[in-house]
Amino acid sequence: MFKKYICTMCGYVGYPVKKSKGSFLVEIGLWLCFGLPGLIYTLWRLTSSYDACPECKNPSMIPVDSPMGKRLLETLNEDKL
Ligand SMILES: [Zn+2]
Is 3's pLDDT higher than 90? Predict the structure, then answer.
């Protein structure tokens, strides 16, 4: 069971999606043409992957049980009431 996350940008509550920088096509191209730079590019993409909000695509998802997440959730609930 995963913890839920909240987006600090748009207030979306749910689970972040994994996003990686760079392009899959570039990665394949480097592998086919050069080999080693392809490996470096693949490693860079793996290390630079981040959790993004599925709604606004910003890397701004934080756990709802963190102090900041709780405060944000309370603020959002107050707005709805
Ligand atoms: Zn968002």
Answer: no
By DSSP bridging, strand 50-52 and strand 61-63 are unpaired
What confidence tens digit (pLDDT) does each residue in 43-72 have?
999 998 888 999 999 999 999 999 999 999
pLDDT exceeds 80 at position 80:
no
Q: How far is the CA of 11 from the centre of ligand 1 (A)?
A: 6
Tell me how far the alpha carbon of residue 31 lies from the centroid of ligand 1, in angstroms. Answer: 34
Name the β-bridge partners of 5. 14, 63
Task: Please state the φ and ψ torsions of residue 44, each to the nearest 5 degrees.
Answer: -65, -45
Angle (CA) 48 54 55, round 5°? 130
Measured in angstroms, how far is the CA atom of residue 61 from the centroid of ligand 1?
7
Neighbours of 62 (CB within 10 A): 16
